[in-house]
Specification:
This protein has 611 residues and is an alpha/beta fold. Helix content is 19%, strand content 29%. The strands form 8 sheets. Strands 21-22-23-24-25-28-30-31 form an 8-stranded parallel beta barrel, surrounded by 4 helices. A 6-stranded antiparallel β-sheet has the order 3-2-4-9-6-7, with no helix packed on it. Helix 8 links the parallel strand 30 and strand 31. The chain starts with a helix and ends with a helix. The N terminus is likely disordered. The structure holds (2S,3S,4S,5R)-3,4,5-trihydroxy-6-oxo-oxane-2-carboxylic acid (GCB). (2S,3S,4S,5R)-3,4,5-trihydroxy-6-oxo-oxane-2-carboxylic acid binds next to loops.
């Protein structure tokens, strides 16, 4: 009975969520081209392990002394010697550089998991009849945002952007922005508290104050469809959003026009001109695209390409492509990463993929990576697999959790749908098969399909070995365009490396397959005859043998071995080889190449030459 009830609740709570209900109220697509103020820099902070600043329930007075978000100059109050006193002072707190995770900012915060308040004071120009927004690129994991003492919004989910309208709360002149950041993950968060990476807390990506006119372009998107049309839409918000002429100019090609409907929305449909150059990893052509309407203009740099599957092939611009990739965590090079993806840091990582490994593809695991990384993938010419952290296990039976996943997915798709590099949306990673889990993932796949029918859907599935044959026994496969599996034979389990090339695989003949992961740990510089795990030789030999196995799978159309560089994982506690690091990188944390790097680079060099 309980099961039936749960299934019913589930059907109402999620099957019933229409894609349009998942559209964030504000997107500010292409806001990088708007008049804006970067709020990066030194912020002050105050730890709040007991969440006192958030829990002033029923006006219990003692707590109000601790509400860090109050618009109060504590030092001035104190010098007046009044009756009020406070047990915080955000103006005189310690400082931290934002964006960046707090874990690397101070030794005391290395394993801090909870709430921290951040404050930044800034001077703003007047809004002058227009609108002002705060756009956060990512806060991990929950954000409580106050401007000048007034709550302006909240957000859950550590890797997607959110936009808050602050037109009324903003002052011309001095402003006090306070953000409570709660890094706590639980059984209902996405991901949960168990992952194989560091759940860095903080304001990990840039925050901007963005100005726009009263009627403004909130969303503007274009994609090249396989039928040769460039299709998309422009959405206006504001008092004059209806019946406006919209102009879309792609580089120096002839501009197209459309008119918004009563809801402020205009569909764009242009037959791609013969002169349109296609985007590809070899020739990552980006057009400067200008969207104008109602006196507002935004610009984006957009590439045009098609992606499709046909039988066992993945077709990029109509031609078969093999994805020469690697998986990547969002961590810059260096002994103490803080998830601070500056352009320089992201470029350094992608440069190793493109020019070191001769790759044309990256799996950005296990969550949406920074906008900087995505824009660089467009610019440098790397195809992208994108995913949200529905990882290992989440609360499959809980409709509220599914709603979170669908919303997170929508935020990702709306953020990145102008990126030509993104070709695959993944709906999960290594989630053990069960009815509830498959229902959950199926709802995610349907959601992706309705939000973005122009890209491919995949998921990193688990394989099973029965009677010596490895196969995918997963009903979710029916929802996917591209099958993908994580395989660790030769690392986890008892298989000897010599046996890998002869392992038997049974796979559908008419579906493309990707090895979304394979890998083995090696501590850079630890060497012996190769018989022992954690040596560079073992890892290199593991790659040779796994690549030999891969060569025997006729439908294999790509791979993203695990992983480009060593990354922090608090669950990896071998005191000699790991010390809190997952060592499956082809590069050490500081960027030193291990022997296996060259094994994969050579394989990709040959593949690229024969493609
Ligand atoms: C996996 C996970 C990845 C882990 C990796 C490992 O299958 O998807 O997040 O880090 O294995 O190292 O075991």
């Amino acid at each position: 009975m309980r099961r039936l009830l749960l299934a019913l609740l589930f059907a109402i709570g999620c099957g019933g969520v229409a894609a349009q209900d998942l559209r964030p109220a504000l997107l500010l697509t292409a806001s990088q081209s708007r008049d804006s103020q970067d709020l990066s820099g030194q912020w002050t902070y105050s730890k709040d392990l007991y969440r006192t600043g958030l829990t002033d329930i029923n006006g219990w007075v003692a707590k109000s002394r601790m509400q860090r978000y109050r618009d109060i100059n504590v030092a001035a109050e104190e010098s007046r010697g009044g009756a009020g006193f406070y047990e915080f002072d955000m103006d005189r707190g310690p400082q931290m550089s934002i964006p960046g995770a707090w874990n690397a900012a101070d030794a005391e915060l290395r394993y801090y998991d909870g709430l921290i308040w951040f404050q930044r004071k800034f001077n703003a120009k007047p809004v002058n009849g227009g609108r002002a927004f705060l756009r956060f690129e990512a806060v991990n994991y929950r954000a409580y945002v106050y401007l000048n003492g007034k709550e302006v919004g909240r957000h859950e989910g550590g890797f997607t952007p959110f936009v808050l309208d602050v037109t009324d709360a903003l002052r011309a002149g001095d402003n006090r922005l306070t953000v409570g950041v709660d890094s706590t993950h639980d059984a209902q968060s996405i991901p949960t508290f168990i992952t194989d990476w560091d759940l860095y807390g903080g304001i990990t990506r840039p925050v901007r104050l963005v100005y726009a006119p009263a009627t403004f372009i909130d969303d503007a998107t274009l994609t090249l469809r396989t039928d040769g049309h460039i299709a998309g839409e422009v959405r206006l918000q504001g008092p004059k959003a209806a019946r406006q002429q919209v102009t879309v100019a792609i580089g120096s090609l002839a501009p197209a026009t459309a008119t918004t409907d009563e809801a402020g929305r205009a569909a764009i449909d242009i037959k791609a001109p013969a002169a349109l150059e296609r985007w590809s990893p070899e020739s990552p052509k980006l057009y400067d695209v200008r969207f104008s309407a109602a006196g507002d203009t935004v610009r984006d740099r957009i590439g045009f390409r098609t992606i499709a599957v046909k039988g066992g092939e993945i077709l990029l611009n109509g031609k078969p492509v093999f994805l020469r990739g690697i998986s990547l965590h969002e961590e810059e090079f260096g002994p103490n990463p803080a998830r601070n993806m500056t352009e320089q840091a992201a470029r350094a990582l992608l440069h190793e993929v493109k020019h070191g490994l001769h790759g044309n593809y990256v799996r950005l695991s296990h969550y949406p990576h920074s906008e900087t990384t995505l824009r660089l993938a467009d610019e440098m010419g790397l195809l992208v697999w994108s995913e949200i952290p529905v990882y290992w296990s989440v609360d499959w039976e809980n409709p509220a959790v599914l709603r979170k996943a669908l919303a997170m997915q929508a935020e990702t798709i709306y953020r990145d749908r102008n990126r030509a590099s993104v070709v695959l949306w993944s709906v999960g990673n290594e989630t053990p098969v069960s009815e509830a889990r498959t229902r959950f993932h199926s709802a995610m796949a349907d959601n992706v399909r309705s939000l973005d029918p122009t890209r491919l859907i995949s998921a990193a599935l688990l394989v099973e070995r029965k009677d010596g044959v490895t196969a995918i026994h997963d009903p979710l496969a029916n929802k996917l365009d591209v099958l993908a599996v994580n395989t660790y034979a030769g690392w986890y389990g008892d298989d000897k490396l010599e046996s890998l090339p002869d392992l038997k695989w049974q796979l559908p003949a008419d579906r493309p397959l990707i090895f979304s992961e394979f890998g083995a740990d090696a501590l850079a510089g630890y060497r012996n005859d190769g018989a022992r795990k954690f040596t560079e030789e073992y890892q290199a030999e593991y790659y040779r043998k796994t690549l030999a196995m891969a060569g025997k799978i006729p439908t294999l159309r790509g791979m993203s071995p695990w992983v480009l560089k060593d990354f922090r994982s608090p669950r990896r506690e071998h005191p000699v080889f790991q010390n809190g690091w997952n060592r499956k990188g082809l590069l050490s944390e500081t960027g030193v190449r291990k022997e296996a790097f060259e094994v994969l680079a050579e394989y990709y060099r040959n593949r690229a030459a024969s493609q």
